[in-house]
Amino acid sequence: MREYIYERDGGCCKECGRFVFGRQAHIHHIVPISENPSLKLDPSNLILLCESCHKKVEEGSRKWEERPYFFC
């Protein structure tokens, strides 16, 4: 699933648009598993984030919103 999400999102963080790879590429659950376990492996609930944005989204200092990125 990780490879699929990475390919689908073009290797770009869906928050800031930065190209990420390796350990910098984090897969994020939009709806947390604790809120809805059935969405754990649902591709529509998974996005690619860079490490920095993933920390901000998880801490709650930033809420993820879908944004179009034309450069990635």
Task: Set down the secondary structure blueprint.
Layout: H1 2-8, E1 25-29, E2 46-50, H2 51-59
Antiparallel strand pairs: 1-2
**Low-pLDDT stretches:** none
- Class by alpha and beta content: alpha+beta
How are strands sequenced across the largest beta sheet? 1-2
Helix percentage range? 10-25%
Beta-strand content bin? 5-15%
Q: Figure out the total of helices.
A: 2
| Spatial separation of the terminal alpha carbons | 20 Å
Average pLDDT number: 90
Could you tell me the number of beta strands? 2
InterPro entries: HNH, HNH_nuc
Family: Belongs to the HNH nuclease family.
Protein name: Putative HNH nuclease YajD
Organism: Anoxybacillus ayderensis
Task: Tell me about this structure.
The chain has 72 residues and is of the alpha+beta class. The chain has one domain. It contains two helices and two strands; from the N terminus they run H-E-E-H. It has helices at 2-8, 51-59, and strands at 25-29, 46-50. The protein has a two-stranded antiparallel sheet with strand order 1-2. The longest helix is centred in the last third of the chain and has 9 residues, at 51-59. The model has no long low-confidence stretch (mean pLDDT 90).
